[in-house]
């Protein structure tokens, strides 16, 4: 099957994330590839506490956009030395879904340039031990979005300055800063390749059997603009989900960091917020209401968790790990 290839025509992260989400939710058939770039931005994972993830003075000084995405994982920095890719396709068996299904084509595209990369951890692609790509996924009905970054010639100093990196991620590791952990693909390519040439190579390689040029209709573009305005432009979406609550517990598991805030009244959960860089594929907002009004007991919370597919919302973090965090 031929892939439908699209570009957003923008470097505004709010527009680009709206474009991607609109295509996921409204183009319900076929394989779609989108390549896109953002101007200087920090893109926050859907379940993260924005103010804890960014270096606010640095971000404000350098006029860096801060926008929340709808996929899990951790915060990432984007600039015009970075290229983003999005795969949108039919969801097959959710139980057999792995990141490798989508990272292998990217690794193969790099191999064609004699760059030896490998998947690592939960969602990274590394070259020579340095991270050049982070990925995340989202399921929407019968469709799946997989997207990732590709650091081609990004500014490591800006990455290091914009993000507040959890020091726990560096335990027992020799690399102690973001700058020392990331790499640029351009440094590993023998020829003097421009980012645009890399873009064209990636478009051809990731399309597999070939592509047809796709675009959105005027009506669809109005839908993208509306989604941008009503969601991605708003303080409530990008920052407002970072409240102050009475209970705050944080744990670190193989599946990622898990942080839970709660406001308890008369022994019941009045409000709950769950953050982390675990690889969720569905929005946490779908299940938060299930906890409201429940007794704040292990048994009551276990009852809620028993009724949902945990991997959709918490990646590989287990029920026992969630409960251990809540009742630390």
TrEMBL record:
Pathway it works in: Protein modification; protein lipoylation via exogenous pathway; protein N(6)-(lipoyl)lysine from lipoate: step 1/2; Protein modification; protein lipoylation via exogenous pathway; protein N(6)-(lipoyl)lysine from lipoate: step 2/2
SUPFAM superfamilies cross-referenced by the UniProt entry: Class II aaRS and biotin synthetases, SufE/NifU
Record-level GO BP terms: protein lipoylation
Any Gene Ontology CC annotation: cytoplasm
Enzyme class of the recorded protein, top EC level: ligase
Annotated Gene3D superfamilies: Bira Bifunctional Protein, Domain 2 (3.30.930.10), CO dehydrogenase flavoprotein, C-terminal domain (3.30.390.50)
Domain BPL/LPL catalytic: 27-214
Key words, A-Z: ATP-binding, Ligase, Nucleotide-binding
CDD domains on file: LplA
Superkingdom to which the source organism belongs: Bacteria
UniProt-listed Enzyme Commission number(s): 6.3.1.20
GO molecular function, one term: lipoate-protein ligase activity
InterPro entries in UniProt: aa-tRNA-synth_II/BPL/LPL, BPL_LPL_catalytic, Lipoate_protein_ligase_C, LipoylTrfase_LipoateP_Ligase
Catalysed reactions listed for this entry: L-lysyl-[lipoyl-carrier protein] + (R)-lipoate + ATP = N(6)-[(R)-lipoyl]-L-lysyl-[lipoyl-carrier protein] + AMP + diphosphate + H(+)
Presence of the UniProt keyword Nucleotide-binding in the record: yes
One Pfam family recorded for the sequence: Lip_prot_lig_C
Name by which UniProt lists this protein: lipoate--protein ligase
Organism: Hornefia butyriciproducens
């Amino acid at each position: 099957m031929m892939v439908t290839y699209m570009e957003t025509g923008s470097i505004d992260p709010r527009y680009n994330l709206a474009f991607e989400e609109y295509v996921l939710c409204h183009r319900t058939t076929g394989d779609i590839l989108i390549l896109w770039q953002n101007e200087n931005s920090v893109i926050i994972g859907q379940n993260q506490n924005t103010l804890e993830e960014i270096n606010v003075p640095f971000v404000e000084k350098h006029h860096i956009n801060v926008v929340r995405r709808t996929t899990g994982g951790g915060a990432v920095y984007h600039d015009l030395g970075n290229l983003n890719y999005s795969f949108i396709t039919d969801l097959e068996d959710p139980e057999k879904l792995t990141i490798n299904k989508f990272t292998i084509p990217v690794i193969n595209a790099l191999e064609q340039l004699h760059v030896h990369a490998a998947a690592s951890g939960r969602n990274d692609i590394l070259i020579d031990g340095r991270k050049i790509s982070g990925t995340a996924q989202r399921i929407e009905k019968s469709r799946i979005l997989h997207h990732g970054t590709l650091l081609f010639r990004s500014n490591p100093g800006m990455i290091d300055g914009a993000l507040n990196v959890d020091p726990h991620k560096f335990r027992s590791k020799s690399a102690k800063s973001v700058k020392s952990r990331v790499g640029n693909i351009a440094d590993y390519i023998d020829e003097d390749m421009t980012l645009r040439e890399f873009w064209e190579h990636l478009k051809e390689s990731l399309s597999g059997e070939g592509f047809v040029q796709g675009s959105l209709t005027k009506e669809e573009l109005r839908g993208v603009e509306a989604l941008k305005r009503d969601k991605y432009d708003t303080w409530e979406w990008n920052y407002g989900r970072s409240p102050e609550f009475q209970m705050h517990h944080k744990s670190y598991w193989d599946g990622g960091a898990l942080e839970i805030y709660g406001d308890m009244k008369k022994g019941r959960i009045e409000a709950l917020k769950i953050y982390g860089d675990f690889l969720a594929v569905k929005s946490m907002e779908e299940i938060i209401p299930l906890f409201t009004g429940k007794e704040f007991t292990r048994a009551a919370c276990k009852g809620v968790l028993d009724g949902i597919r945990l991997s959709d919302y918490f990646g590989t973090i287990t029920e026992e790990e969630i409960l251990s965090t809540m009742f630390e």
